[in-house]
Amino acid sequence: MRSFLIQQKFSQIGENMAQFINTKENIVTEAVDGLVAASGGKLARLDGYPHIRVVVRNDWDKSRVALISGGGSGHEPAHAGFVGEGMLTAAVCGDIFASPTVDAVLAGILAVTGSSGCLLIVKNYTGDRLNFGLAAERARQFGLNVELVIVADDVALPDLPQARGVAGTLFVHKIAGALAENGADLAHIAAAARKVVSKTKSIGISLSTCTIPGSPKEDRIPPGMAELGLGIHGEAGVEQIEFKDASKAVATMVERLSAAMEEKPHVAMINNLGGTSVIEMSIILNEIRRSAIGERITHVIGPAAMMTSLDMHGFSISAYPADDAEIALLKQHTPLAAWPRVSRLGQVSIQALPDGLTPVVPMPSMHKPTREFLTSCCEVLIAAENDLNALDAKSGDGDTGSTLAGAARALISAVDRLPLADHTQLYRAIGLELSQTMGGSCGVLLAIFFAAAGDAASSGLPMREALQAGLRRMQEIGGARPGDRTMVDALAPALDVLDESMTEAAKAARAGADRSAQMSKANAGRASYVNAKHLVGHADPGAEAVARLFEHLALL
Q: Which residues are catalytic?
């Protein structure tokens, strides 16, 4: 038992250190120093490490209203990343997901506040309210004019007397920051900030919890589920819902968000919670555009990581019914890289293809046996998708199965547009379809193969010779030869014996695919960059696909 506990402890330590950090105690101070050092002299930090971690503008002269925000670290670039011209004057950094101390907040106030006063922008969490609130009281005892606004924009938990403050806080930072930069007084800025607070609505969703440095990752969200309305500190959400795709996730969020939104034009902020890829965020934006609130969204901020939750694989949507003057403030220049631009949201603009690239569509013709034959071949590739992806993950980027299956699905969708009764034209039509629908080098090579086979067939060559002509052209352009660990290792031997029987062709293809599993070096494709130990024992996914296809044909 003791051995098991020791092993488990070391396992947890290994998991916890799978991050680019040194020690959890120094995470915040080292991150602050990195930010300040890279600011080009525009930022500084107060001399108070390790208990006082305050980032300030280095060019501040206290003549204007100061804006101070902050809270627990782990939400980067918030809050220190928004210190600079047109936004915050200072940010007070606590430990990961923990409020800064009263002394740290007070130090920030005293460092940047002059006769014009300062505004504290605080998210609605008990620790932040108490520490910032008490610091404000102590600053007033110094004779300083201090106002405080509390942001409560989260609509996920409607029964709370006061909602949590989440990414919508950044609307306040930017609008109040632009007003302060323009010389507005404290009363005007505070009133504008409170208006933004009262009308901003946000909601988040995630597929995973975040990884807190020094702690085991909490895996409370099972596969196939998403957590709706979770907080930016990893708090559990209002409910776990079945996750199907981006469209359904956004629709569920929009349903909750819409109920709290006014029937006015809005600016939407699309915030990455830290672990969502750029391509996912673009898809999410497109789904918001097409959603039930899409017509109410006139401008967007992001998608970008603005108020994260460490590495959480999720995102949040914040909406604010900004008027023209407020949109101008949101658009007002700030040099801060952390603040994404504000863009008008419109329809997808489409331009016609240049002359010569619009495909010549062949005259469709029906031939039931050919239709059934082609469809069954496509179904083989679709069924093999996961197996081929798993093979490709050993030697490539894990997408061969999806690439082939995607092309197969496209061919099935297009089958009634193909010249099924004219096999010469059919080869060319398949090549054209693959060139348009199949990505990567595999799609290009197969498009070349079928196009060349169609040219050969049109000159009178029988099927085997026509397909071999397609193979030769594919090899000339792609450069692969038998023994290079590609689909050619299965395709070439299969075509060599195709005239004997489909059974012999299937055996030859299978033998070629199996041989590829013993090859320790690839001379073409992404596998050529892979170490031998990751290749041996795993067939080339392209060769395996060819072998499965011929084995299917042998059974017809």
A: 233
